[in-house]
Amino acid sequence: MPEDSCVPCDAQTPTGRFAAGEDPVKREQILDGAKRIFMSTGFDAASMNDITREAGVSKSTIYVYFANKDELFAALMEREKARLAQSLQDILTGVDDVEDGLFRFGVGFATHVTSNDTISAMRTMIGVAPRMPNLSQRFFRDETLNVRTVLENFIERQVERGALATDDISLAARQFIELCTGSFLKLRLFGSMRTPPPEDEIEHIVSAGVTLFMAGYGAKKSAFATE
């Protein structure tokens, strides 16, 4: 869920209008326009004028919400990260079986990170990392809702149920995330794989990942193991 989806009551004026820079719909409109520009031209070539035109807002409006292009890009990356985490959390909602949950999570994660939009965003982040180190650090270390914490929460529940056994939940989560994409992510990032992998290939990689993960952390033999 986007971070601004729940707006405090004091963000609105007595007339019912939002205070300057507090309208969540307008903020999303700007971020959507920025996403289209960043994805099509890249960070360096994009300008605030381009984003203003694409978002359909005035220049004065965009600067009320975001001080500069760096801040706008950071907010966009935070939003996309939160959306992915929320979608994976939704996938795991109500799932009790450990292997089923890991498989669903893995397929959802691998499908997303190998998509064209995500690969484009990751390449852009890599390009700006040297001059925006705080963005990269915040993106990967933020302990609020993110992909890793979603998986850690699921693993912790499975440890409590006795389905998994580990004294380092964070390490287990990081290892499973790495297992989910096999070599797909690197191949996509560096252009060796020009299109996203087919669904059946993703499922094959994730199934193998679940088998390996359960062999190391499972309390019983994985159902994904070959007979």
Notes on the structure:
This protein is an all-alpha fold and 227 residues long. It contains eleven helices and no strands. It has helices at residues 24-41, 48-55, 59-65, 69-92, 98-113, 116-128, 133-141, 147-161, 169-181, 184-189, 199-217. Helix 4 (69-92) packs parallel to helix 8, helix 5 (98-113) runs antiparallel to helix 8 and helix 9 runs antiparallel to helix 11. The longest helix is centred in the middle third of the chain and has 24 residues, at 69-92. It is elongated. The model is unreliable at 1-10 (pLDDT under 50).
Number of strands: 0
How much of the residues is beta strand, in percent?
A: under 5%
Distance between the termini: 41 Å
Largest sheet, in brief, is: none
What key attributes describe this structure?
227 residues; mainly alpha
Provide a brief overview of the structure.
By secondary structure, the chain is mostly helical. Helices cover 65% and strands 0% of the residues.
Layout: helices, strands, pairs:
Elements: H1 24-41, H2 48-55, H3 59-65, H4 69-92, H5 98-113, H6 116-128, H7 133-141, H8 147-161, H9 169-181, H10 184-189, H11 199-217
